[in-house]
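Input/output pair, single chain:
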Amino acid sequence: MTRPRAASERFVAQLPTRIRSRVQVIYSPILEIRPLSVQVDTAGVRGLIFTSANAVNAAASLDVARDLPAFCVGPVTTGTAKGAGWNAQMVGATAEELVAFLLKDRPDSPLLHLRGEYSRGNIAERLTESGLTTREQPVYQQHLLPLTSEATVAAGGETPIIAPLFSPRTARHFADIWVGSAPLWLAAISDATAESLYSMDYVRLKITKAPTPKKMRKAVKKLVKHAMRVEGDEATD
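Output:
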């Protein structure tokens, strides 16, 4: 698992027991979330936009005003925002759905998108260009990490490795740092995430039909089943 530890553990816990029992989970976060020491000015702001739980946690640590409505992507981000004290509403499972909702619903503005230093989608720019004034501010950074020693040893073995990748940036980094002979089975949460993986030597690359945790779990389940079947066939040759 390449996500930050808490997110990885949450993802694994939501996999079916029969899948977890068939694999050895190796936690090797290649991305570390670090809140930024910044001042968040909410003067005049009429609502917040959160597209990740990391942004919610960072905003909470910076004591951002809780009396503002929060428009969120996905159930995890929404639940985290509610737990932190915001009047949070899930307005889509993806950033595209969030933008579409806000442009249709037209809440009071200006809005403020609190995000990481590296972000895709140009949410604030697109909303502003469409007449819904939105500012943006990074509140956390995504620091890249090497593979752990356990993951490096596994990469040099013969047991199949199933690696879910959840963002284009982590996919690019994974492709850069992966050195190994183990059969590699990859799951990518989007076409953009998959782009950096095509140059790798892999057995199979599964791209989800929608960029959601549910679809990623489905992709991982399929990869586990296929990998086990291939291993079983080779064992009987």
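The first strand starts at residue 31 and ends at 35. DSSP finds ten helices and nine strands in the chain.
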